[in-house]
Amino acid sequence: MLPDDDEFIEIDANPEQSAPKPFPFISAAELTAKPISIPWLLEGYIERGSLNLLFGGPGTGKSLLDLDWGFCVAHGIHWNGCPTEQTDVVVIAGEGFAGMARRLKALEVKHGRPAPERLFISQRPGDLIDSNNAQWIADSIMALCPNPGLIIIDTLHRNMTGDENSSADIGQFVANIDNHLKPLGAAVLIVHHSGHGTAQRSRGSSSIRAAMDAEFSATKDGANVVLTCTKAKDFEAFSPQQFTLKTVDLPWPDDDGEPLKSVVLEHAGDAKPVTAKRRLSARDDAILTALSEAIDKHGVEPSAEIKDKFAGFKGWTNRAAKVVHIDHWRELAYQTITVDCEAEEGKADARKKAFKRCRNKLFDSGFIVEHGDYAWPIFH
């Protein structure tokens, strides 16, 4: 039934009932009245309520790092000597479900305690570019743990349906985090991939980095992983830290009765300076990217000989560390090489020479490794 005229008049007569609250301001004097200390969640790394990015290439241990951080924060224990504030931790996992239990079991062995009850793992990815879906995730987190302190999104690519190269799509992704997840009071850590052909920046739009309070990169240095703080808006960045990969026997047998294995990262102190690599041309970068694409399409497990001769493969029993036959790489690389020649025979010869020159440069500069008929990026 519609309200009568008197009811409308009564509402109009009290406009203050529907007046919006004043936009919030605070005086500068009040802000500086008390000393401010950084509210650390993980001291030196992650502040409470902050937005953070951890990026790295395949095999750089970024998911090992974020799960280790979540494990320690949920328990309230030190991580490599850095204090944590104990709080609930939620991981919105977009990949790696098969190995999650093994990684958690390996962390139990590493830290000598059971997996924390305050650490929660999603069983599917979430589309955080959709505001309704982001609100659904936020509501589910609140029902699970009303006061989450850390939300880990692993990875950005698997938890959004938009284009990571689009500043508009990334803007919507970040806005949904700001509007739905951060109001829960949690710090947010986004795990992402490094750019194609370079480990020095995250993949996709530059607006990703611009939105972050802190940014970290994970890179490979031979058999080691190096963690670097590449952006720290409100604190002094730590010096690059080095980690080694340690294989852990799990208290679970395989089909033959042998212990299942997983891997953890062991802190090995400050990282040693890395010799600067030669700058790549656009063609070199495209051919290096073709190598990664060839591994994605045609990659195979490295032979026992390669594992024995080269660092970085041993112990990685729960990751797809792959190499690719050079013919598959060459086939994709030729598609990126443009030559100024009309004759088909001349084009083929020019592409062959260009590919050979680039292979030699990438090898000499430490971007790739070759053995026999197989190749792989040094950071893979």
From TrEMBL:
This is AAA family ATPase. Pfam families: AAA_25 (PF13481). It comes from Methylomonas rapida. InterPro entries: P-loop_NTPase.
